[in-house]
Design goal:
2 domains, 367 residues, 31% helix, 9-stranded mixed sheet, Dihydrodipicolinate Reductase, domain 2, Rossmann fold
C-alpha cells in the first residue's frame, strides 16, 4: 500500500499554492504532477522551479491521466465552476474553503459527486492536527463528562489595518462569520457534532472603513455587511455554543474555543492552526493543566486533508475533510448570518456525521 501514490493537479497558483506545494512534497502517498492557472506564466514559473511538475491549461489538467485529485485553489467565486469542470472530467476534487459561495451553488456539486462515484474534499484541514484532535480525544474519553456548552470567539479591529485592498472583507460573501467561521464551525462540529438550530444578532460599528497601508492608504470604502455577529448554536447533542465573530473589537481577552462538560472544562487552541496547547480543568482540579498530545497528525500543514483523502480513496474508506462536512459548515454559517438579518432562529436542514478521530501517532498514509 505504501508504494501507491495519488496524482494531484493544482488549479490556481496564487500565494496559498506555495504553502500547499511545500507541505504536499513532505506527505506520503501524494505527488503533485501538474499545475494550471488562467495566467499561464504563473503556472510555468512553478513548473520551472519544481522538476516533475508540468504547467497545463485547466482543461488539459482535468483531462490528464495521471491526475487523480484536482486541488482547487482558485478564488471563492470560482470554487464551484472549477469543481464541476474537474468532476465532469471524472476527477475527484479537493478545494480551499468555502465549498462554494452559498448553499444553492454547493448542493449540486454534492449531488453530482454522489451520482458519479466521485469524492469532494474541502479545507479547513487544520482540525486534523494535534490541537483539535487532542481536544477531541479528551472529550471522547470522558475527561470532562458530558459536553453541554461551549464558547467560540474571533475578534479583530479590522483587516483594513494591514491589508492594502481590504474591501472584499466587507462586501457580500465577506464579514467575520464567512471569513473565519469555517475554521471555528468545522472544529466545533468535530468536537461536539452537527448543529440543528442557530440564533444570531448582528451589528455594524462603522458605515465606512479607511485603508491604513499600501499605495491606497487613506482611502475610504463602504461597509456592506454586518461586522459584529453574535449568537448561539444548538448542536444535535443538545450542547449550546455561544459564538462571537467581530471586525469591531480593538482588544479582548477571549478564549478561541472552550468546551464545558458535566465534570470539567477544556481550552482548545486556535482552530486556524494545526497544533497548539490544549488545557483541561476538572471538578477535582480546577486549575488549568496542559494536556499531553493525544491525537492528530503531528507536524501537519495545509494539504494534510488532501493526503488523508488520497489514502481513503485508495482504501475505499471515508475521508475526514469531506464535502458533506463542508456543506454542513457552509449551511450553518449562512444560516447564522440569515438568522441575524431575519431576526429569528433558523433550523439547519443539513446534518453530518462527526468525522473519524485521528489517532495519536497516525500518518496520512495509514490512518
Amino acid at each position: 500500500m505504501g508504494e501507491q501514490v495519488t496524482g494531484i493537479g493544482i488549479v490556481g497558483t496564487g500565494v496559498i499554492s506555495g504553502t500547499y506545494l511545500d507541505h504536499l512534497a513532505k506527505l506520503p502517498g501524494v505527488d503533485v504532477v501538474a499545475v494550471a492557472d488562467l495566467d499561464v506564466s504563473r503556472a510555468q514559473a512553478i513548473a520551472e522551479k519544481n522538476p516533475g511538475i508540468r504547467a497545463l491549461t485547466p482543461d488539459e489538467l482535468y483531462a490528464a491521466d495521471d491526475v487523480d485529485i484536482v486541488l482547487n485553489l482558485t478564488i471563492p467565486a470560482a470554487h464551484a465552476p472549477v469543481h464541476q469542470a474537474a468532476m465532469t472530467a471524472g476527477k475527484h476534487v479537493y478545494g480551499e474553503k468555502p465549498l462554494a459561495v452559498d448553499r444553492a451553488e454547493a448542493e449540486p456539486l454534492l449531488k453530482y459527486a454522489a451520482a458519479n462515484n466521485l469524492q469532494i474534499g474541502c479545507a479547513p484541514d487544520t482540525v486534523l492536527g494535534t490541537g483539535t484532535q487532542t481536544a477531541r480525544a479528551v472529550i471522547d474519553r470522558g475527561d470532562i463528562g458530558v459536553p453541554h456548552a461551549a464558547t467560540a470567539s474571533f475578534v479583530t479591529p479590522g483587516h483594513e489595518l494591514w491589508h492594502p485592498a481590504p474591501e472584499f472583507y466587507y462586501q457580500p460573501g465577506g464579514g467575520p462569520v464567512l471569513d473565519m467561521g469555517p475554521y471555528y464551525i468545522t472544529s466545533l462540529v468535530t468536537l461536539l457534532g452537527p448543529v440543528r438550530r442557530v440564533t444570531a444578532r448582528a451589528g455594524q460599528a462603522k458605515a465606512e472603513r479607511k485603508i491604513h497601508s499600501g499605495p491606497r492608504a487613506g482611502e475610504t470604502f463602504p461597509v456592506q455587511v454586518p461586522t459584529h455577529v453574535t449568537g448561539v448554536l444548538e448542536h444535535e447533542s443538545g450542547a449550546l455554543t455561544t459564538v462571537l465573530m467581530s471586525f469591531d473589537v480593538w482588544a479582548a481577552r477571549l478564549p478561541r474555543i472552550e468546551i464545558h462538560g458535566t465534570d470539567g472544562s477544556l481550552s482548545v487552541p486556535d482552530p486556524n492552526g494545526f497544533d497548539g496547547t490544549v488545557e483541561l480543568a476538572t471538578a477535582a482540579n480546577r486549575e488549568w493543566t496542559e494536556v499531553p498530545v493525544a491525537g492528530g497528525y503531528a507536524g501537519a500543514g495545509r494539504g494534510v486533508g488532501v493526503a488523508d483523502m488520497a489514502r481513503a480513496l485508495r482504501n475505499g474508506e471515508p475521508h475526514r475533510a469531506n464535502g458533506a462536512l463542508a456543506f454542513h459548515v457552509l449551511d450553518v454559517l449562512e444560516s447564522f448570518v440569515d438568522s441575524a438579518v431575519q431576526d429569528q432562529p433558523l433550523d439547519i436542514a443539513s446534518t453530518v456525521e462527526r468525522p473519524a478521530a485521528v489517532p495519536l501517532g497516525a500518518s496520512p498514509e495509514t490512518a
